[in-house]
Write a structure and sequence with these properties.
Layout lengths: L1 E5 L8 E3 L8 E3 L5 H13 E2 L3 H11 L3 E5 L12 E5 L5 H10 L4 E5 L1 H5 L1 H4 L4 E3 L4 H10 L5 H9 L21 H4 L6 E2 L9 E4 L2 E2 L11 H5 L4 E2 L2 H15 L3 E4 L8 H13 L5 E6 L6 H10 L1 E9 L3 H7 L6 H13 L3 E8 L6 H13 L4 E6 L7 H6 L25 H16 L2 H16 L2
Parallel strand pairs: 1-5, 1-6, 6-7, 7-8, 10-13, 13-14, 14-15, 15-16, 16-17
Antiparallel strand pairs: 2-3, 4-9, 11-12
Length: about 450
């Protein structure tokens, strides 16, 4: 049988990525100022990757069938396939639904957690929604003796037949994602002010996040709150595989909270060091997970960049968000230790939180400049459908188009700020952070180190 993965996106002048925000996706629209537009262009050209889940599904199906990946809804292979797999997201929602309406002659599996959340929007006379983690469904189906056209056609008549294929799967049992095929056609990179242009392989070591920010975060919807981990040996095997196959030593860990399992992380670092894998990698984690021992090990193992959530400098705002964090003095100390150890830090802030005022946002901008991190990101609070916080804001939603729920736009009626003012403050945040003497010097220093090694 032949499957076509049809991964459609709307046309935007900023980066769109479906793998972030727990599979809902984000659109990095940094604002309308001249500098923000330049940043939009740079990030769109230098940072990009599809959802890991769909690349795992591609590898699963390729064990027995033909798979073609495309982002073009007019691709000629669509007419010649048996089934289409369409990955869902919030940042391409209307485009995906419109595409579905035009595919009248194909049977379509819709994947991704957003389709599970908004199931009715994705159901047509010839489409079905694969709920939750779709790679689990296709793995179990592929291992059965029922993956044939006759049985799959029956599924479209009786979707309840799918329930037999949702049994939990060990993460070690999944094949490695199909990055080899993907990277031949599309850019696969994650460079930010770094001239070492290499393919950057997205890699997933753990799934699940137990933290309190599930109140507004979508990761628990996709992966649950219980943490599940691949074995360290399995992760190491994947790293070695891509080094050999694609000649790259650069990896982007897509775990919701890397290092949440301390023993697992220490074991991973030690094996990378002992086996002299000589890799560089990026992770996202919580500042509370980074102590002297962990920072030292991660640095020796090759950690190049760490993303950490700060969200706001206001304790009032953080309490309202139900966000667990560490005190300001510890934030500074941990970030400084990372930078001193050669680990670059990207702090992530959210503006437009329900309790935010113009003053609290400006305070957060100033705080971002004070912290010794090389980079900073400023997104906008978004009450996502499916999260607990959405129920509190659904009657205040002002944005009609779900594709604009991209984590960079104000989507609800805010008590203290207008959509225009939020946009202005977002642009101001990026300009003030990156265009101050201390940060310019810090970035230029890293720039020359990357290019010339000094």
């Amino acid at each position: 049988m032949k499957f076509v993965i049809l991964d459609v996106y709307p046309s935007k002048k900023h980066r769109l990525i479906k793998d972030t925000a727990g599979g809902y996706g984000t659109g990095n629209d940094f604002g309308n100022s001249f500098f923000s537009k330049l940043l939009n262009l740079y990030v769109d050209n230098n940072i990009g990757m599809p959802a890991i889940e769909i690349m795992i599904i591609s590898s699963i199906l390729k064990e027995k069938h033909e798979v073609h990946y495309t982002r073009d809804a007019t691709d000629k292979e669509i007419k010649n396939c048996d089934y289409i797999i369409l990955p869902s997201s919030i940042i391409a929602h209307e485009t995906e639904v419109e595409t579905l309406s035009k595919l009248e002659n194909n049977k379509i599996f819709v994947t991704g957690i957003f389709a599970t959340t908004m199931r009715d929007k994705y159901l047509t006379k010839n489409s079905i929604v694969v709920k939750n983690e779709a790679d689990t469904f296709f793995f179990n189906l592929n291992k059965s003796d029922k993956i044939n056209k006759n049985f799959l056609d029956k599924i479209f008549l009786d979707p309840d037949l799918m329930n037999d294929f949702y049994s939990p799967v060990s993460l070690d049992d999944f094949p490695f994602p199909d990055w080899g095929s993907y990277s031949k056609i599309y850019p696969l990179r994650n460079n930010f002010f770094n001239l070492k242009e290499k393919i950057a392989i997205p890699i997933l070591g753990t799934r699940g996040c137990p933290y309190s920010c599930f109140f507004y975060c979508t990761y628990p919807l996709q992966q649950g709150r219980k943490v599940r981990a691949r074995s360290v040996d399995n992760i190491i095997d994947e790293i070695k595989f891509w080094k050999k196959k694609l000649g790259t030593s650069k990896f982007v860990f897509r775990d919701p909270v890397f290092s949440i399992n301390r023993k697992h992380t220490i074991d991973f670092c030690n094996k990378v060091i002992e086996q002299k894998l000589d890799i560089s990698f990026m992770v996202e984690t919580h500042l509370n997970n980074l102590d002297d021992e962990m920072i030292g090990l991660l640095s020796k193992a090759g950690l190049e960049l760490v993303y950490v959530g700060v969200e706001s400098s206001s304790h009032v705002v953080l309490k309202d968000m139900q966000r667990f964090t560490v005190e300001h003095d510890k934030q500074y100390k941990v970030i400084k230790k990372c930078e001193d150890a050669g680990i670059k830090v990207k702090t992530m802030f959210i503006i437009g939180n329900p309790e935010d005022t113009e003053d609290t946002i400006i305070q957060s901008i100033e705080y971002s400049k004070y912290l010794p991190s090389l980079y900073s990101q400023f997104s906008v609070f978004t009450p996502y459908p499916g999260t607990p916080v959405y129920n509190d804001y659904k009657d205040l939603i002002t944005e009609k188009k779900l594709e604009n729920f991209n984590q960079y736009n104000l989507t609800f009626k805010h008590n203290n700020l207008t959509e225009k003012r939020i946009s202005e403050l977002k642009s101001k945040a990026y300009f003030k952070f990156y265009f101050n003497f201390k940060k310019v010097f810090q970035i230029l220093n890293y720039f020359f180190q990357s290019k010339y090694g000094f």
